[in-house]
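# step 3/5: fold
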Amino acid sequence: MSSGDLPPVPRLPTRTPPRKQRAPRERSLTREAIATAALEIVDSEGLDAMTMRRVAEKLGTGAASLYAHVASKEDLLELVVDRVIGEVEIPPEADPEHWQRDLKQGLRDMRAAIAGHRDIARAIFARIPFGENALGGAEWMIRTLRAGGLPDQVIAYACDLLPLYVTAVAYEEGLYASENVTPEVMLEFNVRMRDFYASVPPERFPNVVALAANLTAGGTGDERFEFGLEVLVRGLAAMAD
């Protein structure tokens, strides 16, 4: 019989009482569990609420316990960002015949993953992810662009430009969502913008007045995103060897 199988040891009332036994945790404290808890906080409360103390509280432990698995707040942010990147499904191989199609779909998936977690996009700006999922994403993008015959240096710049575009769009969407800017609200705002542009002095701003309707056409976020994708991918294709 091991010590864990023994019944409670009897003690005299005058002796030190046994410490109250803690209930066993439902999940062990791991980097994966920490990332899950941190991302849940981002989803429900926003990025600023994701502190070491708040994550520890959610996991039912002390902040000091987290430092055995996560070195700092920066490390925690990188862990969560990599967790989000891991939600993007990566094709196993590149298709030279359809590299543009595959590249655009991967970027759409990246936008959906980032935009699906409130303002997590803010944590991605000015930060180069080095996690397992981030490296896998970089490997996919390089492989896909190489399949399109792009020069190595063009690919290197594209690996910075494309995620930057996707993250910027996702960040804007996250801001609108946090401010409850619905499509209906945006449509009404577009009407007011059109009236404003149309009413400015035409002798000073003739082109703004002429394009008042076009500038405020009220296209959906998807339409705007797809336009940007098309411009970027066509531009890259024009640089192929």
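# step 4/5: annotate
The radius of gyration is 26 Å.
# step 5/5: archive (pending)
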